[in-house]
């Protein structure tokens, strides 16, 4: 796991890094745009990747997109990545390419 994906940052620090309010960050979680980890005590923990994603979400919201539109865009990107990985795997198998 990359250091960027380790969930170690508290919500207060994320708020400072992104300029978003705690309420905005929680709202994006409610809308299933961001998925923080939870400690046993229920404290949210974010990664550097989450911080980057929150900044991207905030920029898209400023551009006038709704959260539902952002979710659709993210789903298309994820679907495209999965498709690309499948094609790459098929090509590697067909040509017996090993990493």
Question: What does this 3D model show about the protein?
Answer:
The protein has a three-stranded antiparallel sheet with strand order 1-3-2. It has helices at 11-18, 22-30, 48-62, 67-94; strands spanning 9-10, 37-38, 44-46. The protein is built from four helices and three strands. It is 61% helix and 7% strand. With 99 residues, it is mainly α. The two termini are 19 Å apart. The model has no long low-confidence stretch (mean pLDDT 93). It has one domain (3-94): Multidrug-efflux Transporter Regulator, Chain: A, Domain 2 (Orthogonal Bundle). A hairpin with a 5-residue loop joins β2 (37-38) and β3. It comes from Thermoflavimicrobium dichotomicum. Pfam families: MerR_1. This is MerR HTH family regulatory protein. Residues 8-76 form the HTH merR-type domain. Keywords: DNA-binding, Repressor, Transcription, Transcription regulation.
Summary tags:
99 residues; Multidrug-efflux Transporter Regulator, Chain: A, Domain 2; mainly alpha; 3 strands; three-stranded antiparallel beta sheet; 4 helices; globular; 61% helix
């Amino acid at each position: 796991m990359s250091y960027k994906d380790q969930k170690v940052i508290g919500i207060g620090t994320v708020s400072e890094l992104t300029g978003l309010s705690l309420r905005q960050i929680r709202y994006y979680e409610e809308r299933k745009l961001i998925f923080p980890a939870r400690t046993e005590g229920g404290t949210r923990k974010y990664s550097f990747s989450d911080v980057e994603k929150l900044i991207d979400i905030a920029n898209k919201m400023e551009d006038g997109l709704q959260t539902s539109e952002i979710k659709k865009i993210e789903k298309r990107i994820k679907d495209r990545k999965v498709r690309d990985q499948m094609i790459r795997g098929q090509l590697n198998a067909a040509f017996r390419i090993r990493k």
